[in-house]
Amino acid sequence: MFRRISLFMLAITFILFSGCAEEEEVEREALEPSPLPVTASVASIDVLYEVITSTGRITSRRTQSLTAQIQGEVVQAPEYAGEEFAEGSVIFRVASGQHASNLSAANSEYRNAEALYQFEIDNYRGEVTDGVRSMLRQTTGLESASSSLASARTQYGNSAVSAGFNGVVSDVTAQEGMTVYPGSPLGTLVDPWTLQVEVDLDERQLAQCTAGLKAFVIIPSLNDTVLVGEVRSVSPVVDPNFRSGTVVVDVPHVPNLRPGATARTEIVFAEHEGSLIIPEQAVLIRDDRPMVFRVLEGHADWVYVTLGPAGRGYVAITENLAEGESVITSGHYSLAHDAPVAIVN
Known about the structure:
The protein has helices spanning 2-31, 97-122, 130-139, 142-157, 203-206; strands spanning 36-42, 44-60, 63-67, 72-76, 84-85, 90-95, 160-162, 167-172, 179-180, 185-190, 195-202, 214-219, 225-234, 244-251, 262-279, 284-286, 289-296, 299-304, 306-311, 314-319, 326-330, 341-343. It is built from five helices and 22 strands. Residues 1-5, 10-17 and 25-29 have low confidence and may be disordered. Strands 2-11-14-13-12-15 form a six-stranded antiparallel barrel. The chain has a four-stranded antiparallel beta sheet with strand order 3-10-8-5, with no helix packed on it. Strands 7-6-4-9 form a four-stranded antiparallel beta sheet, with no helix packed on it.
């Protein structure tokens, strides 16, 4: 009987102990807050670029303003903007009856003078020297006729406006049938395959730039495509009104990149190899000191760090962080030390 009572009491004790343990576990889980969702990035060894950032416009390195050289009627013009032309091909042609008539008369005068000159040469009594030839060109009128013909050909040739390089017509301001005059704008030819970006920098930034520096060019219209260019020229003077100067960066051609497009440029003036880098947004300022939250075993670990140079959205860390450690980049503004976190990248 005593043994039965002992076994019964032991069972009751076990049940009560188990129940208490479960209650304590439930209570502990209730007290542990849910992990906060954050994004994180891994600290890595890489090159850090210090850059000068500015925004400019894509332009063509070669542009030709097409203007009429004579008065007349436009008898040939491009059908549409964007039409391609090879170097030397006629883009516009202006008809002028007077210039055609002058060329015809000059040709006739030249042929007559040439025939007379040849007759004099064939019948000249004596040695035909260079001096004799020069004298006969003057006396027969061949010299004058040759000059008149060259002038007439130039004037007539001015009726054709040709491409100075391979390019496309960016705008057409004169149509067939229009009457134009010397200097009248006809259109513009651009080279869309040789591009550059022009940016204005203040005098302090200008002093950090030299030709040959690497530059990253970001094109918003092409989904933030990043192109690697090179500084081609730096303004030798500072504009006294704006205290700035122009820097020109050569840009490689990519499909659908057009002159006039917006371009953000990051000109590299210093490179730091082998830097331990993290995104700049990971760094917070607490107690006037820079710090980051590392992720250790599912918890946020507050650690003060020493910053190095920064650029292109990254900053170098020189103390208190190691390669491969994860640092929180968002969701950390109201975090506390040792708070549970869940990375949701």
